[in-house]
Write a structure and sequence with these properties.
It is a single chain. With about 400 residues, the chain is of the alpha+beta class. It contains twelve helices and 20 strands. It has an eight-stranded mixed beta sheet. A six-stranded mixed beta sheet has the order 8-2-1-12-19-18. Helix 1 runs parallel beside helix 9, helix 9 runs antiparallel to helix 10 and helix 11 crosses helix 12. The chain is globular, with a radius of gyration of 21 Å. It starts with a strand and ends in a 6-residue tail after the last helix. The relative contact order is 0.17. Bound molecules: 8-demethyl-8-dimethylamino-flavin-adenine-dinucleotide and P-hydroxybenzoic acid. The site of 8-demethyl-8-dimethylamino-flavin-adenine-dinucleotide has 34 residues, from helix 1 and helix 9.
Length: about 400
Amino acid sequence: MRTDVAIIGAGPAGLLLAHLLAQDGIESIVVESRAKEYVAARIRAGILESSSVDLLRSVGLGAGIEAQGDEHRGIYLQWPSERHHLDFVDLVGRSVWVYGQTQVQADLVAASEAAGRQVYYDASDAAPHHLDTDHPCVTFTDAGGAAQRIDAVAVAGCDGSFGPSRAAVPDDQRDTWERVYPYSWLGILADVAPSTDELIYAWHPDGFAMHSMRSATVSRLYLQVPNGTAVADWPDDRIWTALATRLGHGQDGWQLTPGLITDKSVLPMRSFVQSPMRHGRLFLAGDAAHTVPPTGAKGLNLAIADVALLAPALGDLVRKSDTALVDAYSDTALRRVWRCEHFSWWMTSMLHISGDPFDAQLQLAQLRWVTSSAAGAAGLAENYAGLPIGF
Ligand code: RFL
Ligand code: PHB
């Protein structure tokens, strides 16, 4: 097969890139190792920052957000006996939207199918080749077992943290940075109306807790747990009791309503960056190039921001052989990546219990400052609501 851009990975980065390229008249073929249903069902991110919403709306992907999304002015930050609301709209003039990654993925799949774009699901052994030439290709085995090859002008590595693209950059031509945190999140999805109008991030001596949501009838909640925690050690009652304690059930009359838990999983926390986000004609985007701990809600938004930069750059390369934007892509993308890496690390470090009592006092001092100083609050708001694409 021949196309303009061969894309590895049909997550949000890969499918949105295909959509943006198509709007610009550039063809692509997507190769995905998993089944379409598996990719669609993965429960991951829940918050879209304002520039992600603006971008999705501007390319015809805003109908679902309008119909089912929930615009939030800000978040609550709390510690025992105190809860404070940070109003991002007042602070920096931008809001965020509760709209789950499953919904973003469903919108992208619907757009891809309506346009008849080629996506090979259940593909195995995907591998990029000839990346240091101007005729790269991707080989794979399709769902029926047939060997396939896609010749392209460029390859986009949108295959997440464990795909082949990241590793296709030779060791002596890449730098990597990593931080593994000494705690994980136990996440649940529950069929119960959220007990809050906006997200609650709670510092607590027992560990961090968060109350998020997916809709008016579905809540998403998280608990800090030690690394290596088994889901089996957390029966439903234990989860609701811990959430009630950490989120402050009973404080100032606030109540956490428990409900039927429909999903439970443990999520390790990691920061990772690989640079450059390019090797010859291979361009990395989204989790393929970087990972953030979820506390800042940046993972999905960074993937969207990467492909918003990459699509016009690949357009210029394919149409005009103009390399100015592809040459600038990695440096431009990494500026935002490192800003979000810092913000995600900072939110994580401020809110999770490390076991060190000195750390706990520093965290409380920081939380008091962020919730009482207009400058402190605006700094958090600016980062959480998201910087403009191209920052
Ligand atoms: P994705 O979504 O991981 O998509 C990559 C796609 O590539 C496919 N793939 C391959 N395809 C072909 N051949 C191969 N050899 C392949 N290997 C992999 C995969 O099957 C997949 O479909 O990356 P993308 O598109 O860059 O999007 C990034 C976001 O998904 C990610 O940043 C966020 O979901 C991160 N994240 C969260 N972010 C938040 O902001 N809030 C959250 O609550 C949150 N929860 C999470 C998360 C990530 C998780 N992962 C990666 C384990 C929870 C989990 C469990
Ligand atoms: C979520 O709803 O899953 C979510 C929201 C905010 C975060 C992390 C996860 O910071």
